[in-house]
Specification:
Blueprint: H1 13-25, E1 30-33, H2 45-59, E2 64-68, H3 74-86, E3 91-95, H4 104-116, E4 122-126, H5 128-131, H6 137-143, E5 149-154, H7 159-168, E6 174-177, H8 183-188, E7 193-194, H9 199-214, H10 218-234, H11 242-250, H12 266-280
Parallel strand pairs: 1-2, 2-3, 3-4, 4-5, 5-6, 6-7
Length: 290
């Protein structure tokens, strides 16, 4: 979920509560709070913890709140994960560390230490384009044996790697697509779902496509995938979450401006909008005020 900010650049908790309810109402089963799309790198722990608490209070049992609590500092990740559990989140998102590039053995130790520190489920997140490090299938499968590591958000864009994790993981371990344009293929090979950027604005349509896969109507699901593909790709014309925040605001649901450094200059924004607006106008937006 995108994080709303006020005109002064402060977290708009009231608006976050409304957005959380609206995204759930539009078709999502849960929310990742404090991820890349939520601009977590620009937020401090106190802001994140309040955001976790308020969004969970807002949606209650209508959906799960998965809290982005980890970075490349294992001790800090453990501390924030424990505090997130205290404020009532349903699970934590455990992202492959960026910048320091541990070995696969180091990744295993990092994630098991975090998982052992909490009693709630953890979902791994592999996103090499952001972290400069791919967690290989063997390491993911090793971590899948940890009792409260329940799945992985796979954004490696490596279909063989994703398929092997699906094929060889223990029963009950779930694989979510980490990229909207790969959801159809991931689910068609046995994946569980999508942690979606597009779900901020067209959640119901994404959910419908997933339902068609589960019903075995692959032809209809493929047609829906192809229909939504231009939007999936347009949301990455420039760096996420700039496009999706722009789309939410353009739809009439105000979530404010981003925080620096995720603010393009005027020329960049104009060039983006000239490409993006004609594509967005082809779609019905599922997100709406109550």
């Amino acid at each position: 979920m995108v994080t709303p900010f006020t005109e002064e650049g402060e977290v708009d908790y009231s608006r976050a509560r409304e957005l959380a309810k609206a995204v759930i109402r539009s078709g999502s089963d849960g929310l990742v709070i404090g991820g890349t799309t939520g601009e977590a790198p620009s937020m401090n722990d106190d802001e994140l913890l309040q955001l976790f608490a308020e969004t969970k209070e807002a949606i209650g049992d209508d959906g799960a709140v998965v809290a982005g609590t980890t970075n490349n500092n294992t001790r800090a990740s453990i501390a924030l994960s424990r505090e997130a559990e205290k404020v009532g989140v349903d699970a934590i998102l455990m992202t492959v560390p960026a910048y320091n590039k541990p070995t696969m053995g180091g990744l295993y130790k990092h994630f098991t230490a975090i998982a052992d520190a909490v009693s709630i489920p953890g979902i791994l997140y592999n996103v090499p384009t952001r972290t400069a490090l791919n967690m290989d299938a063997a390491t993911t499968l090793r971590l899948a044996e940890v009792p409260n590591i329940v799945g992985v958000k796979e954004a490696s864009s490596n279909p063989d790697q994703i398929a092997y994790v699906i094929k060889d993981s223990p029963e009950g371990f779930k694989v979510w697509s980490g990229n909207d344009n790969e959801t159809f293929a991931t689910m068609a090979t046995g994946g569980y779902g999508i942690v979606s950027v597009a779900g901020n604005i067209i959640s119901r349509q994404v959910r419908n496509m997933m339902g068609l896969v589960l019903e075995g109507d692959i032809e209809a699901a493929a047609a829906e995938h192809l229909r939504m593909l231009p939007m999936f790709n347009a949301l990455f014309f420039i760096t996420n979450p700039i496009p999706v925040r722009y789309a939410i605001n353009r739809s009439g649901f105000n979530v404010g401006s981003a925080r620096m450094p995720m603010i393009p200059d005027a020329a960049e924004l104009k060039a983006f909008s000239q490409r993006f607006d004609p594509i967005m106008d082809q779609y019905e937006i599922d997100l709406s005020e109550a």
